[in-house]
Amino acid sequence: MRDLPPTATLRAFEVATRHATFTSASEELHVTQSAVSHQLKNLEEIWGLQLFQRGKSLSLTPAGAALAPIVREFFMNLEATLSDLREQKGRVRLKVSTTYSFALKWLLPRLPSLSQQHPEILVTLDTTDKAIKFSSGEADVAIRLGTGNYPALFSEFMFREHIFPVASPDLLSRFGMPRKPAELLRYPLLTRDGSDLVPKWEIWFQHVGLGISPLKESVRFADTNMTVEAALLGQGIALARSGHVETEISDGSLVRLFDVPFPSPVAYYFVCPKGIESQPHIASFRRWLIQEAMKAQLAYE
After folding, report:
1. pLDDT exceeds 90 at position 90
2. Do the beta carbons of residue 180 and residue 135 sit within 8 Å?
3. Which of 53, 139, 179, 199 is the most exposed, having the fewest neighbouring CB atoms within 10 Å of its CB?
4. How many CB atoms sit inside 10 A of residue 140's CB?
5. Angstrom distance (rounded) from CA 206 to CA 41
6. Which ranges of the chain would DSSP assign to H, the alpha helix?
7. What's residue 299's pLDDT?
8. Contact of 93 with 124, CB cutoff 8 Å
9. Gap between the Cα atoms of 17 and 25, Å rounded
10. What are phi and psi of 216, to 5 degrees?
């Protein structure tokens, strides 16, 4: 680009746009006032545009105001990218694909432990409910909820959650604590939209020995996080997977109802293309993940 000025000149312009005088801009840049004035005059000559209205204080012309955010964004992006590259030096980036709800509720709270044990691994999370296509470079490894049938991939069992009803203390203070599962039918029950992988009230009621007709619904939620949030707000009782309400059960913002064992029919699996599972950084991540999964499984049982 013939009109691209030296970086130092662009930097002087960016700083000057944030100051009222050349003098205060020169103090940030640690150069003389005349040096700043000379650089900005040179920039105006290169671009053939007046960038500042000069007087007792500096003010941008329309051309200067249009260019200022572009130049500022350039320096912000440059600084952020350099910082990221320096952080990555000596580290291996690992792209992990999983569902949004699992990442938010289970994986994210545990990632500091990974950083402590394996500071060389820099995890990038990609969240999606869609089938993963490793060939497209979307991810290196994935965590998926299913039956373990991944014939073209390396897969390893992680853990199986338990399913149980949860309610907020506020809702229980209004409706009372249910003494047996049949009493739940007089409570507002939150339902979730989705595939067969989603916990269903009808199946849970069958598990506890109650045959019921389809539930009356007012709202059907699109994802797990919305369902849990509605339960936290006292809007009803949610049928939750144990791994998605660990924090809420621990801090008392949700209460587990009934100590009825009901293992989820599906489980979480670590999956990746066959042959890469033994690569050092992937093997380290896999071992850490399985250790955390074993801890979680013991807590649920």
Report:
1. no
2. no
3. 179
4. 22
5. 80
6. 7-16, 22-29, 33-47, 62-88, 100-102, 111-117, 169-175, 201-207, 224-232, 246-251, 280-300
7. 75
8. yes
9. 9
10. -80, 125
Q: What is the pLDDT of residue 208?
A: 86
pLDDT tens digits, residue range 239-249?
999 999 999 99
Is the full-model pTM beyond 0.85?
Answer: no
CA distances from 225 to 4, 99, 101 (A): 49, 11, 6
Distance CA 215, CA 68 (A): 59
Question: Scanning the structure block, which residue is given the tokens 């007087």?
Answer: 55
Query: Which tokens hold the place of 118?
Result: 């394996």
User: What b/e string do you get for 71-83 counting C-beta neighbours within 10 Å, with b at 16 or more?
Assistant: beeeeeeeeeeee
Dihedral sign for Cα atoms in the order 49, 54, 60, 62:
negative
Asked if 286 contacts 156 with a C-beta cutoff of 8 angstroms, the reply is yes
The pLDDT value recorded for residue 4 is: 82
Q: How far lies 203's CA from each of 3, 178, 214, 226, in Å?
A: 69, 19, 11, 21
CA-wise closest residue to 215 among 228, 224, 206:
206
Reported as a single tens digit per residue, the pLDDT across 223-238 is: 888 899 999 999 999 9
pLDDT tens digit sequence for 102-132: 999 999 999 999 999 998 898 989 888 777 7
The string of DSSP codes covering 69-105 is: HHHHHHHHHHHHHHHHHHHHTT-EEEEEEE-HHHIII
Q: What is the spatial distance between Cα 156 and Cα 267, in angstroms, rounded to a whole number?
A: 11
Place of tokens 């690569």: 279
